[in-house]
Task: inverse folding
């Protein structure tokens, strides 16, 4: 789990998010405690708490006094929307910008994506109608 390039508390938050997105941690289910996370990942409990508090700040987790942290209603959809937006920003927008630079139109890009998903690799034919 440890990625030396990113803070541990961010990685802890992402692990919990991944569990919510993949459904292994359901909405309204109790989230792992900071003590459990600290023991499992062999980190300082304050570091685990910082990751959990990030999720509280995002509205993904909420505290029930005396019981612990729970996954908020709507947390999965919130995280999916956040990830879709990040995906578009990191991958789709740069892909389309590069496609325009080399003369490929939206249909050309869609054809390349479909071919890639099917496991084939056709040659792209520039769409001369797209500036």
Result:
């Amino acid at each position: 789990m440890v990625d030396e390039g990113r803070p541990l508390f961010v990685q802890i938050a992402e692990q919990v998010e991944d569990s919510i997105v993949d459904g292994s941690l359901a909405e309204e289910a109790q989230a792992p405690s900071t003590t459990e996370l600290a023991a499992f990942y062999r980190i300082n409990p304050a570091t685990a708490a910082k990751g959990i508090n990030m999720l509280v700040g995002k509205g993904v987790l909420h505290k029930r006094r005396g019981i612990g942290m729970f996954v908020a209603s709507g947390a999965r959809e919130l995280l999916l929307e956040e990830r879709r937006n990040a995906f578009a920003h990191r991958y789709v927008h740069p892909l389309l910008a590069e496609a325009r630079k080399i003369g490929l139109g939206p249909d050309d890009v869609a054809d390349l994506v479909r071919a890639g998903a099917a496991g084939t690799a056709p040659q792209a034919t520039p769409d001369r109608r797209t500036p």
Notes: DSSP finds five helices and two strands in the chain.
